[in-house]
Amino acid sequence: MAKCRLQYPHQPLHKYHQKGDLIIGGIASQSFIISNSIAFTEEPPQALPEEFVIESSSDTECNSNFSVVPKNYQQILALIFAVKEINENSHILPNLTLGFQIYDSYFNAKRTCHATMLLMSTIEKFVPNYTYDIQKNLIAVIGGLDSQTSIHVANVLDIYKIPQLIYSPVPVMNDKTPGLPFHQLVPTENLQYKGIVSLLLHFGWTWIGVIVMDNSNGERFVQTVFPMFSQNGVCFAFIERIPTLTFVTDVKNVLEEGAKIHDKLLGSTANVLVVNGESYSFTFFRWLPYLTEQELITTTLKGKVWIATAQLVVTSFVFQRTWDMKIFQGALTITIHSNNIENFHRFLESRSPSSAAGDGFIAEFWQNAFACVFPMRFQGQAQGNICTGEEKLESLPGTFFEMSMTGHSYSIYNAVYTVAHTLCKISKSRMRHRAMVGGGGLKLQKQPSWQLHHFLRSVSFNNSAGDEVSFDQKGELIAGFDIINWIVFPNQSFQRVKVGRIDPQASPGHAFTINEDAITWHSWFNKVQPLSLCTESCHPGSSKQLKEGEPFCCYDCIPCPEGKIADQNDMGDCYECTDENYPNKRKNLCIPKDVSFLSFEEPMGIFSAVFSLSFSSISALVLALFVKYRNTPIIKANNQDLSYTLLISLLLCFLCALLFIGHPQKVTCLLRQSAFGIIFTVAVSCVLAKTITVVLAFIATKPGSRLRKWVGRRLANSIVLFCSFIQAKICIMWLAFSPPFPDVDKHSTYGEIVLECNEGSVAMFYCVLGYMGFLAMASFTVAFLARKLPGSFNEAKFITFSMMVFCSVWFSFVPTYLSTKGKYMVTVEIFCILASSAGLLGCIFSPKCYIILLRPELNNREQVMLRKC
């Protein structure tokens, strides 16, 4: 099996320098060269000290250039442009020029430390701690782009207390040991993560995938955002880790892992991917559409919304020049805030290999970016397109070079100006104390490096774009992030569109802003805002029920139980309406309850009032009839005083029903049950007295009976008064200790607020009913026993029928009353009052009225005294 060897370059460090009174050092991540060439050999040579081998399934030669196009070259140009502007501006550092030295880190610890030591040497050779030229005094270092590079630089600079300004989010530095001399030209990482959370919540994306590099920074990112996202209701469908390609990595295994990740993304229901990585990670993400578990073929990754952190840089390998980028269409990236810098575009247009003396980066960049070669760089015959040097940077695709200043370049531009304004501040401070040094020169070249930290921390200025540059107490830039939308064109070029802002200095509620209309989504979503949910939203009227063993974003939707509602999507639980409201049929809205009571305006109230008045009128007519014919035998034969009392009590019973109709008031609540109880007791007592009178009258008619003296009005009146007195005493005790009162029942009847009279003491209420029932049963029993007594004057049979009606009505009243609610309870009681009263009126008095009005011939003494066997 053939083996493919990737060789690490052995050329010297790329360098760019410019002399000045003070030197700004730069550690650039200009290129990430794995190998200048790849060649297959049968066995790897043993002479190369650093190498790794790709197992290959074929003997095909591999001549592809495996270099990352040095897109970060714009960051070098941003530093050069800033130094050029400052040196041409006499107002910032008069009589002083800035120089710079830039070295490539190669993303390698040894090379980075070597380059850092070279920055501090005043000669071209590596001689640590040796200084002989005050015109090349290192004042500060800018870099690096990735966290590991910044750490390596900081560890060396800490020895000499030289300030370091880094221009990328580096989470590994957040828990740095005190003393590492650096300042961040980017906002805090937490602000970026909070912005991502706000972005996810704004669009309702709660089911996401996370892709990170398989290193300490990737693990730190996961450990940081996982609790933050979970607390805000965002779940992780998966967390994939991209293997880090190193010089000891098996590339075949890396590609196999990439294929698994590709298939995981393709099959996941999560439409949103949050991506974090190093600056060069984008080159690995571009492989995803070309990987499957089976073979390396070009496939189409279905539409996803990529949300990338500010660390990622859109860059490519040289061989990825024509690769499809449409999978990133509609991506949203959190980027370091940048602004348009005047004349920077013109400066880039004027850049060419012929006008860049001392630039050790431009030739490498030019060849890789334009796919050409400079003949003078080869000893033999050059192969391929010849570089003319007249190529235009604006013709390059965006993955190779951008003409607009990127966020990282903007940070470098601000970093250079930060150093310049710091030196200006030191200069002004020394001028105030010039007398103490005898009026000598400023001699900023001899300024101790450690003293710059204090001035750096307190520096504040507005750059040429109008943005304020200042640091907080932690040495982090006080600024925000931009939210950028990618628009990818068919020719693989792309456009960045600013669609939002994360501004910590904005007023509360406006720290996160987004313009949805300005966003272009992936064509797979058909111009509709993407959804990314484990479960479709639970609509109002239902609540979420978590699935066992699944993340909390995955749930079932269950309808709300009776009496509860859910008026929003994805509610965790249904809730009850207030007492004044009740759920609608869909259980998604609380609607006001109707106020309910038996009123005179509704049909039941009208019918009850009509019947009440009708029967009371009939009672009054019967009473008038009895008064008119009071001297007739039929009236006299049956104790006319009891008849009058009974008719009056029945009249009042019918009218008493009116107290139960209408809005419950305190007076009506106090009177209606007690008045009804007492009046009805008088009526039943009269019936009982009549029954006893009939029995005693029959017995007293026997010769020699001693009961004759008891037959008369005194006994009847005593019975009525005694029985009524007991009921009155019960009612007085009821009103004294637990009287009825107006009340509001909000729960018994669905959808209604019932205005009612609370009986106060239910026991007393049933005592009143029970006592009336006792009297009725006594009357019924006596009347039933006396129903067959002879004589036309015998009322026992009529009383028996009336008591049967009375008892039937009131025995059915109790279960019916207890099974009804609201105004229907009142209706039941009114019906019982009218029905039982009508039964007494009809059964007892209708025969007499019939005789008086229709059969007057029977209304004589002979007929009344006639006995029947």
What does this molecule look like?
The protein has 869 residues and is an alpha/beta fold. The protein has four domains: 10-35 and 62-187 and 339-470, Rossmann fold (3-Layer(aba) Sandwich); 189-336 and 481-525, Response regulator (Rossmann fold), CATH 3.40.50.2300; 542-591, no CATH class; 603-865, Rhodopsin 7-helix transmembrane proteins (Rhopdopsin 7-helix transmembrane proteins, Up-down Bundle). Helices cover 38% and strands 15% of the residues. It has 20 helices and 28 strands. An eight-stranded mixed sheet has the order 11-10-12-13-14-17-18-19, sandwiched between helices. Strand 20 and strand 21 (555-559) form a beta hairpin. Helix 12 runs parallel beside helix 19, helix 15 (666-700) packs parallel to helix 17 (762-785) and helix 18 runs antiparallel to helix 19. The longest helix has 35 residues, at 666-700.
